[in-house]
Backbone:
């Protein structure tokens, strides 16, 4: 696997707070596979933890998730998507097809 560039939850929440103070209403989280968030920093998948903190940011109305592989998708992320109105219910999966 290639090197992963991850930022701690606290830093991302601070950045989101600063953006919201400047009028930003929507966050779009983009990665080759968001479900890997946290593995380097916390030694566990932490996307659900990140989302739980980002939804607390005042002024942010929508959080979109772009891209996740369906294999190994953390079920706790689905719980956050279901229960947090700020997290958009539509998210982008990455599908790869191999033909021989």
Residues:
């Amino acid at each position: 696997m290639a090197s992963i560039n991850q930022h701690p939850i606290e830093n991302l929440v601070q950045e989101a707070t600063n953006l919201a103070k400047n009028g930003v209403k929507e966050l779009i989280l983009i990665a080759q596979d968001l479900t890997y968030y946290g593995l380097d920093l916390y030694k566990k998948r932490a996307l659900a933890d990140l989302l739980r903190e980002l939804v607390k940011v005042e002024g942010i109305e929508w959080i979109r998730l772009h891209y996740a592989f369906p294999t190994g998708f953390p079920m706790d992320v689905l719980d956050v998507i279901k229960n947090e109105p700020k997290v958009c219910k539509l998210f982008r999966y990455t599908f790869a097809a191999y033909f021989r």
Summary: The chain has four helices and three strands. Helices lie at 9-21, 39-42, 47-54, 75-83. Residues 30-100 form a domain with the Transcription Regulator spoIIAA fold (CATH 3.30.750.210). The chain has a mean pLDDT of 87.
